[in-house]
Amino acid sequence: MAVKRHVADASMYAWAILRMALGFIFLWAFLDKLLGFGFATCRSTTTGAIAPGCENSWVHGGSPTAGFLGHATTGPFANFYHHLAGHMWVDWLFMLGLLFVGAGLFFGMWVRAASLVGVVMLLLMWSALLWPVNTPVIDEHIIYALALFGIALVDENQVWGLRTWWNKTSMAKSLPFLR
């Protein structure tokens, strides 16, 4: 009987690059909304000028959800999202979600849980923008969600992550859903 052993093939490195890239997108969104780096949060809509650390950043009292949920939502669920805009509990859930998904994917820890949270967040963002502008149904939110689903499926064989170290920590042992 042959002994089964794991040998990372080239596809696992492609999955790792995709995982880290998606993690970076979520982490960057978190940091930009938190500190106002000027890419999405503190850029003037009229002039395009960047004002890092502006009053729209979360650390300066801005709401990370007020702009998008309050003004950019479209489609059948727009009123629902308008009513959520700017509430402190929505801001906290959104920001914690961005941080959890971003850190989990980028560093390769709690990848399945981060992928699940990421899929939920992306589907909510997709539903806030119905219907997509360039296609009837599919947009980047759906593509990213599908990629996260694939990342969750290959997590057991991941490369380039802190999964092995993380699973030995007392927190991972006491909270198995974070493995």
Notable features of this structure?
179 residues; mainly alpha
Structure write-up:
The structure is a single chain. This protein has helices at 10-35, 66-72, 78-84, 88-107, 111-128, 140-153, 163-167, 170-174. With 179 residues, it is an all-alpha fold. The protein has one domain (12-178). Helix 1 (10-35) packs antiparallel against helix 4, helix 4 (88-107) packs across helix 5 and helix 5 packs antiparallel against helix 6 (140-153). It is globular, with a radius of gyration of 18 Å. The protein starts with 9 loop residues before the first helix and ends in a 5-residue tail after the last helix.
The assigned structural class equals mainly alpha
Query: Please, how many domains?
Result: 1
Number of strands: 0
| Count of alpha/pi helices | 8
Q: Which ranges are low-confidence, i.e. pLDDT below 50, for 5 or more consecutive residues? A: none
Global outline = globular
Percent in strands: under 5%
Separation, N- and C-terminal Cα atoms: 30 Å
**Global Rg:** 18 Å
**Mean pLDDT over the residues:** 89
Largest sheet: none
Instruction: Work out the helicity level.
Output: 55-70%
Following the backbone from N to C, one meets helices and strands in this order, namely HHHHHHHH
